[in-house]
Amino acid sequence: MLGLGLGLIGSRVDVGELGVSVVLTVALFALALTMPWPRVPTWRRALPAFGYLLAIGILRDAAGGAGSGLSALMLLPIFWLALYGTRAQVVAVLVATAVALYLPFVLIGAPAYPATMWRGGALLVAVGAIIGFTVYALIGRLRALLAERARLIEELETLAGTDPLTGVPNRRAWDDALERTMAAARRSGEPLSVVVLDVDHFKRINDEHGHQHGDRVLKTVAAAWSAELRPGDLLARIGGEEFAALLPSCDAVTASTVAERLRQAMPRGTTSSAGVAQWDGSAEAVAVLAAADEMLYRAKQAGRDRTMVAPARDRR
Questions:
Q1: Which of 34, 132, 160, 294 gives a 20 to 30 Å CA spacing to 255?
Q2: In the chain, which residues fall in CATH 3.30.70.270?
Q3: What angle separates helix 87-107 from helix 118-160, to the nearest 10 degrees?
Q4: What is the mean pLDDT of residues 50-77?
């Protein structure tokens, strides 16, 4: 639009060519606004920039040719593709700019395009190349830094939600996942169960074999239990030697079977206890976990090495 306004300034303007340039510029502007950019192939995204070169060439001729002062507008497509295009597109638009500058010298010639202006065209292409490749390099560096920043943020978020000893999600990640899974179960109407597991006599293991051995037991248990769960399930360490398994689309009967399978996966010489509770569809997340934890406590009180399931009236 700036070029069109500048094209009107002057003593003589070819109205026909000016009209063509106006129509082409408006069409390109509308295309740029309505084009579904994420779904457009890479090279098609560059078409408006190349089309604008044609509009500038027509406008330049309408305003008097090489001496119109509008040749500098050809830097805009170069700048655009340096920002949003590829290196190949930057090279291509530089070539197209040179063609748009020099073709009128061959086809039309003086007086609108005198040979003395060839030097100015070469200078403009050279400046365009410097601008284009400098901006492209800076944008590439910025994109790399942003990608690295996004990767680091994702890594920090993962670390913030991961237990450093066992590598499974921690209590923070468990709380978030439980809330999300309950919301999904509320919408779908599917059952949801929670299993809380505890390594039996873990203090004795630490006292007799040392904390390093106890840590190895926890790592082994976490790996074994994770391998027994479905991809959509979640195992988290929620404190000390206590773990919790989140089982979407799973009722209490099935969850108790899963709990028994997990307990059978314990390392030789160790046992575990488990408590199971099924969400009733209305209780708070803390209540569901508390119900499963209560069943774990009852399993320990009953002699450990067993699974207890919350009765229907306790699934609140």
A1: 160
A2: 171-314
A3: 160
A4: 89
Residue 129 has a pLDDT of 96
- Within its chain, how far is the Cα of 60 from the centroid? 44
The runs of H, that is alpha helices, within 171-266 are 171-188, 202-209, 211-228, 252-264
Which range, 50-54, 71-75, 120-124, 253-257, is most confident?
A: 253-257
Rounded mean pLDDT of 38-59?
86
Alpha-carbon distance of 15 to 59, in angstroms, equals 10
Q: Alpha-carbon distance 93 to 74, whole Å?
A: 10
Cα–Cα distance between 114 and 99 in angstroms, integer?
16
Residues 83-129: pLDDT tens digits?
Answer: 988 999 999 999 999 999 999 988 898 888 988 888 888 999 999 99
- Span 276-290, average pLDDT: 94
Could you say which of 148, 154, 179, 241 is catalytic? 241
pTM for this structure? 0.62
Give CATH superfamily name and number for 171-314.
Reverse transcriptase/Diguanylate cyclase domain (3.30.70.270)
Predicted confidence at residue 316, as pLDDT, reads 38
Q: Please tell me the distance from the alpha carbon of residue 14 to that of residue 285, in angstroms, as a whole number.
A: 75
Is residue 157 annotated as a catalytic residue, yes or no?
no
CB neighbour list of residue 167: distance below 8 Å, 6 or more residues apart: 219, 222, 223
Which residues, at least 6 apart from 189, have a Cβ–Cβ distance to it below 8 Å?
Answer: none
> Taking Cα atoms as reference points, which of 123, 119, 45 lies closest to residue 89?
45
Give the type of residue at 111.
P
